Every structure is written in structure tokens, then in C-alpha cells.
Amino acid sequence: MLNKEYRINKKKEYNNIYKKGKKIPGKYMVLFITNGEREHGRYGIVTSKKVGNAVQRNRAKRRLREVVYRNMNNIKGSIDVVIVARPAIRAASFDEVNNEYIRVMRKAGLC
After folding, report:
1. Per the confidence metrics, is the pTM higher than 0.90?
2. pLDDT surpasses 90 at 55
3. What is the CATH number of the domain that holds 72?
């Protein structure tokens, strides 16, 4: 679980990242990235109803949270990241999601 200081909580912050952030698409997720104002990165995870019912959405969020938690130390600098899950994440294994996250972060130049 991510500590409170590493989470994006407010709708205003999410909207700001959507508007000003760099969008990086992947197979299982889309990342919106902006420079952070704090000394460490913050993360937000979003799943829409396109991903599936509540059980599937929560499973996708748990997987993404774990992927972020495992790879937090590999990220350079202070960034704010919003991760939007895609429907394809339902059929993916944890390792596939983890590898895709690393690939997308490298594509952004953050890993």
C-alpha cells in the first residue's frame, strides 16, 4: 500500500495532471505525467467502468498499486503520475502488467 504522502487525492490535482501532463499510452494502461512540486513522486490510479464490474476494477487497482510500489525506487526525480487502467488489463498477468509499466516509464524517460 502506498503511504498517504505518495498518493494524489484531490480531484483538482487529477484534472491538473490530465490537462498539463504528458500522455503516454501503453497496452494495459495510459500514464499522465507532470513534474511534481514535492521532493518525492505521487501516484494516482484510475479505473473506469470500461474495465469491468467492481470486482475487476478493484483487482486492476490492486495490481497497479503493487506495480507502482515495487518500482518506486527506480523512478528518477519528483513526478506526479496518474495511471488509467485499460480494459485489456483484466486478461493480463501481474508480470505482464509490471513489464508494461516499466516499458512505459522508460518510454517517458523516467526509468
Report:
1. yes
2. yes
3. 3.30.230.10
